[in-house]
Amino acid sequence: TQVRDVSARAQAISGRLVLLVLRDVTEQERLEQMRRDFVANTSHELKTPVGAVSLLAEAVESAADEPDRVRDFAQRLRAEAERLAGLITRIMSLSQLQSDQPVQMHDVGIDELVDAAVGAQRLPAAAAGVELVRGAHSGAFVRGDAQELGEAIDNLIANAVAYSPAGSHVGIGVKVEHGVVEIAVADQGIGIAEDDQERIFERFYRADQARSRRTGGTGLGLAIVKHAVQRHGGEVRLWSRPGQGSTFTIRLPEAPAPEPNRPGKHRGK
Ligand code: ADP
Fold first, then answer.
1. For residue range 188-241, what is the model confidence (pLDDT) as tens digits?
2. Of 126, 173, 222, 269, which residue is least crowded by CB atoms under 10 Å?
3. d(CA 138, ligand 1 centre) in Å
């Protein structure tokens, strides 16, 4: 019976191995498909601004004798080129986040990151007539890549501003609960229909085309947020009601404060 036992176990193990290998192949195929889709979508999205750039360049040529029109076309050309550059930067960020590269782990002070993101959005917010209201500091730390997390917070605040009317407020708060650091960005903007709430995290997906287009977005911001946060073992939550506003919350595992901040570290020199 012992021999039979052993061979049965060997069979079970090899069965599991086959299953594991199969699963691995399927996972690889899924990743491969994801990459192919990404390249296809991206090329498609790049075609529109590139088309606009070449049309505008033609227009500049044909208006050569009319300085005012040349100036107007040149300005639009520059705006289109800037939009294209922004799109490419975001595509690169997302492709980096989707690669198998592990996260560079450092101690990251959340308050500093949030302050920097709020600071970066002050001008666009002022231009849109939206007031940024920063809540109290938390003193919380997480482990991860400050650049990736900073970009995620930045994207949420930029969206909150872009999809809010003049005269409204955007609140940015940090709190810690049960070992989870929560960074919430709450706006009083247009809100998101329930059917769109899951889909907006997909790359290139944009709710209500007409409105979105006016803001000149790319549809990549939230995909970047989602990937960056998931890579850090966190999640993004969304509450929204059309016409009332949206609150996006990034949740990350809390990390202990780094060594130098701990009392007693320098005890006895
Ligand atoms: P975009 O560049 O279009 O803003 P995102 O990926 O950042 O791309 O967002 C995807 C879509 O989700 C937007 O086009 C918009 O329809 C919706 N959205 C994102 N943030 C908000 C918000 N704070 N309020 C309302 N709608 C939002």
1. 999 999 999 999 999 888 887 545 555 667 889 999 999 999 999 999 999 999
2. 269
3. 27
| Model pTM score | 0.81
ipTM score here? 0.98
Dist. CA 160–CA 197, nearest whole Å:
15
Cα 217 to middle of ligand 1, angstroms: 8
Query: pLDDT per residue over 105-162, tens digit each?
Result: 999 999 999 999 999 999 999 999 999 999 999 999 999 999 999 999 999 999 999 9
Is the minimum distance from the CB of 217 to ligand 1 under 6 angstroms? Answer: yes
Distance 256 CA to ligand 1 centre (A): 33
